[in-house]
Amino acid sequence: MEAGVVVDAGVSAGVTAALASVTGLVDELAGVVAFPPAALDGPTRVPDADADPLQESSAACLDGLGLVARLEAATAALKVRLVAAYAEAADAMEGPAASAYEATAREVSKVAEVACALTIGERAASALLGETHALTTSLPAALNALQTGAMGWQHARTVVDETAGLTPAAVSALEAHFFGPDAGRGAAPGELVPARFRRKLRVWRERHHPESLEERHAKSVADRRVEFSPDRDGMAWLSLYLPGDTALAVWNKSTALARGLQGPREPRNLSQLRADIAAGLLLGSANQDLGDVPSPKADVLVTVPVLSFLGITDEPAEIDGLGPVPPSMARRLVANGANFFYRVLVDPRDGAPLEIGRTSYRLPEALKRWLRMRDGRCTFPGCSNHSLDNEADHLTAWQHGGVTGISNLGQACPKHHRLKHWREWTPTPATRNEPPGWISPAGRHYPAEHPDREPPLIPPGCLPVLASPLEQALLTRLAA
User: Fold this and answer.
1) Interval 231-275: pLDDT, tens
2) What is the sign, positive or negative, of the torsion defined by CA atoms of 357, 359, 365, 371?
3) Do 346 and 303 touch, CB atoms closer than 8 A?
4) Is the dihedral of CA 190, 192, 196, 200 positive or negative?
5) Which of 132, 203, 405, 407 has the fewest Cβ atoms within 10 angstroms?
6) What is the torsional sign of CA 316, 317, 318, 323?
7) Is 379 within 8 Å of 412 (Cβ atoms)?
8) Distance between CA atoms of 377 and 411, rounded to whole angstroms?
9) Rounded distance, CA 22 to CA 269, Å?
10) Angstrom distance (rounded) from CA 198 to CA 196
11) pLDDT value for 363
12) What is the three-state SS of the chain?
């Protein structure tokens, strides 16, 4: 009980102070943007009775922008305080974890709860919880600067990022150097753009880091990875995080090969040549022309209107894990023979997928495909894991009376499938065409993200359209 009182008192004081800072800045902003200004002693200038009204209005707007920046910083500090309060309260209610397995389950559930409350991804929520813990435990001066609006949220995140891996003594020394009473050398952190502030922090960090760069590099090599991010217009980003010398060698080789292809008859610029060469090398193609690389030899789930697939219309197709793509790309995948290319034809009346499956005790392949079409991705709030990496799950378990039908099925990525069994995250019922929603351990309901379907375009005269007797009667009445 005493521990709970201490937690509540400390949390309440921090949240109250952050809220007071926000309230004070809102009041100050209201006075500045009033026309004419409510106070003669504004934040940076005093209105002159003989001054040009437009000039004073312009000056008030600039003063207001400065206050908005401080208000955004104070609001970010309030968010940090609230996230810290939630995490502390959740941990206090749970008590000590009985095992590492239980601790992991609690952490995953806590991250998911914050992600759903803020409508952000779980990676961002996990980062926010980490930043919150660092600011409230190891960087009180930086958090105070954020709370008063002396620096912005990007500055605070930079401090957290650049102090990661430092010993507590080194973190305290860095904070004292930039935020302590003697931190008067040069511009204050909030007076520098975040990128310039990061450079200053990094220089200090490298000079005073207790661990050698050689040791840190050896640890960072373990984090090498490839990242994929879909983009608009049927494009995507592919990023490689590699040791610096390896990345530079890849860049230099692609540049050298690209320069070798340049000439008066080559229409592509250097950047385009690099991209085509890199794609060809990764896919094992000797041809360096755009589009003349091997097609993906993996499962590909594509939804395409039938008339678009036949080349009659130009409506976009959709590739699972990528998003909308031009129909020419879908047709090329079929022609070049991806291993499994599921052509999902859609109903010309409402854009819904046409039925292709049946129910049975075991989950047949047709029903799995139908599930992938209906859900599109992991159904957990905010998760974008695409369907081919997910697992089919009975919403109500078979041993508890659940049936193997589309309305009792949902697909979840392995992490959220485990979370459903670890903690009290409960999926809501699904329907034939709508995926399930979720209810969190805190009792919050997050509805399913319904697909935004549209009826496909049908060119005039392409398909016979028979009007019902009611439609014919209405048309006759209107024409009269």
Assistant:
1) 888 888 999 999 888 888 888 888 888 888 888 888 889 899 998
2) positive
3) yes
4) negative
5) 203
6) negative
7) yes
8) 7
9) 51
10) 5
11) 63
12) CHHHHHHHHHHHHHHHHHHHHHHHHHHHHHHHCCCCCCCCCCCCCCCCCCCCHHHHHHHHHHHHHHHHHHHHHHHHHHHHHHHHHHHHHHHHHHCCCCCHHHHHHHHHHHHHHHHHHHCCCHHHHHHHHHHHHHHHHCCHHHHHHHHCCCCCHHHHHHHHHHHCCCCHHHHHHHHHHHHCCCCCCCCCHHHCCHHHHHHHHHHHHHHHCCCCHHHHHHHHHCCCEEEEEECCCCCEEEEEECCHHHHHHHHHHHHHHHHHHCCCCCCCCHHHHHHHHHHHHHCCCCCCCCCCCCCCCCEEEEECCHHHHCCCCCCCEEECCCEEECHHHHHHHHHHCCCEEEEECECCCCCCECCCCCCCCCCCHHHHHHHHHHHCECCCCCCCCEHHHCEEEECCCHHHCCCCCHHHEEEECHHHHHHHHHCCCEECCCCCCCCCCEECCCCCEECCCCCCCCCCCCCCCCCCCCCCHHHHHHHHHHHC
Q: How far is C-alpha 248 from the chain's CA centre? A: 28
More confident site: 160 or 405? 160
Token pair in block for residue 475: 């048309």
